[in-house]
Amino acid sequence: MELSLTTREIAGHEVVHVRGEVDVYTSSVLRERLIELIDGGARSVVVDLTQVDFLDSSGLGVLVGALKRLRTTEGDLSLVITSDKLLKIFKITALDRVFALHDTVEAATRVPRTG
Amino acid sequence: MELSLTTREIAGHEVVHVRGEVDVYTSSVLRERLIELIDGGARSVVVDLTQVDFLDSSGLGVLVGALKRLRTTEGDLSLVITSDKLLKIFKITALDRVFALHDTVEAATRVPRTG
Amino acid sequence: MSTVRLAFSAAPQYVRTARLVAAAVARRAGVADDLLHDVRLAMGEACGRAVARHQRHELDALVQVEMTDDGPYTVRVTDAYDGGGSDNDDDGDAADQMAETVLAGLVDDLTVDGGEVRMSWPVRRRLAWR
Amino acid sequence: MSTVRLAFSAAPQYVRTARLVAAAVARRAGVADDLLHDVRLAMGEACGRAVARHQRHELDALVQVEMTDDGPYTVRVTDAYDGGGSDNDDDGDAADQMAETVLAGLVDDLTVDGGEVRMSWPVRRRLAWR
Lengths: 115, 115, 130, 130
Ligand SMILES: Nc1ncnc2c1ncn2[C@@H]1O[C@H](COP(=O)(O)OP(=O)(O)O)[C@@H](O)[C@H]1O
Ligand SMILES: Nc1ncnc2c1ncn2[C@@H]1O[C@H](COP(=O)(O)OP(=O)(O)O)[C@@H](O)[C@H]1O
Description:
The complex is a heterotetramer, with two copies of chain A and two copies of chain C. Chain A has helices at residues 27-39, 57-71, 84-92, 105-110; strands spanning 3-10, 13-22, 44-55, 76-80, 100-102. By secondary structure, chain A is an alpha/beta fold. In chain A, strand 2, helix 1 (27-39) and strand 3 form a beta-alpha-beta unit. Chain C is built from three helices and five strands, in the order βααββαββ. Helices cover 43% and strands 22% of the residues of chain C. Chain C is globular, with a radius of gyration of 15 Å. In chain C, strands 1-2-3-5-4 form a five-stranded antiparallel sheet, covered by helices on one side. Chain C is an alpha+beta fold. The chains are: A alpha/beta, C alpha+beta. Bound molecules: adenosine-5'-diphosphate (ADP) (2 copies). One adenosine-5'-diphosphate sits between chains B (2-3, 25-26, 28-29) and D (126, 129-130).
């Protein structure tokens, strides 16, 4: 029900593992963590959503906000998504074409750092 | 959430394994099964409540009804209960002194058939 | 102050909905985890009683539930039966009696007044979330 | 006909409560299991929008939700913002916009009319239980 976040660095990427529901009640927690990382100098951020069973438009808003912030510093945000339910909301909002989506954290961290 | 019932005979006792929640929504299903057994000639009925995570006063009502019906034919009803939460509602209503309560189905079916 | 109200047609399945809401709102209000089963059970008994009264007296009105958490977590369940008409359904009375016995044993702060059941549980203010 | 109403103070935690109730009531109404995630999400979006509108305009009134299942499972979420006052909070507008885009893509039968969101899903009548 609640949200839990774990962050680790993999090959120059900051990987945030998210577990739980990202919604109007919890998305602020994810926002703060992402801002913290970006303000701390992270340039490639990977958000692992494979353990997320619910994400709403406020969660999307947080991800879009982080992407915008990263782009001002030539940074990058990519997402790891495996569930069709989650994918659906990205497709509805056409955000599947805005974010780099991956099936695994491995695939996401294998991508060369741009910029 | 829903209720599921399995009945088997052990050493002359009819054992009804109950799984789920016994409440205003489902207790009628348990009532019908018990009446069926008693009308079919069962004299010792054991209701196994170890897999029940919720039981309310309508569930208690069904058990009391079955006990009354069995007593008119010198029959017996015993219960298998392990959870403190369930035990609490029997204590509140003093029904822990009306029913024979056991920790295991084994203990309940080891009891000699009276009457 | 926070308020959640629930109103539902007098059918047993919505008693389950009310239990679900009771536990969710109580948890957010800061009721201790080991009281949540009591809260669910008490809400179920109060709503089951209200549904039975509506059904017995063929009332179409909705059963009303109100939860507030300014101060203790407080629940009020109100049915629409005003005490009129015939009420000699023994089966109903026995069931009502059982529900009221469970409520009385379960809830320290309880008032049953005709069609209204009021109950409350202490909350420990959450200092921080998580 | 069955009706369930929920009303709650404009706080994010009750959006979760509304989602919980939406799924429970929809399931009992006979909405197909593979639609339940959409129902939860749509209820969350509609209620999140209503909560944001109340908070932005500092309205104390409760957000109102009504579910009925005479015919399709129908949800109506109503907020108390009447369109008056200043509404040039860009952040709010972007969030509202995102919520409305999700709703539009998610719900076939949707009407958004100011402070009211109406939506419905087909039910397949359960022939028998278990
Ligand atoms: N367990 C949690 N996990 C993630 N975020 C939470 C959690 N609890 C609360 N939050 C976030 O913190 C905000 C305030 O939380 P809440 O506990 O409701 O406040 P308060 O401490 O004032 O009672 C929420 O709106 C939500 O964004
Ligand atoms: N899955 C179930 N498990 C146990 N009992 C059930 C179940 N579904 C329904 N019941 C019982 O049957 C009664 C009528 O069920 P319901 O499915 O709501 O009626 P209908 O078939 O008229 O829609 C309920 O009040 C409850 O006692």
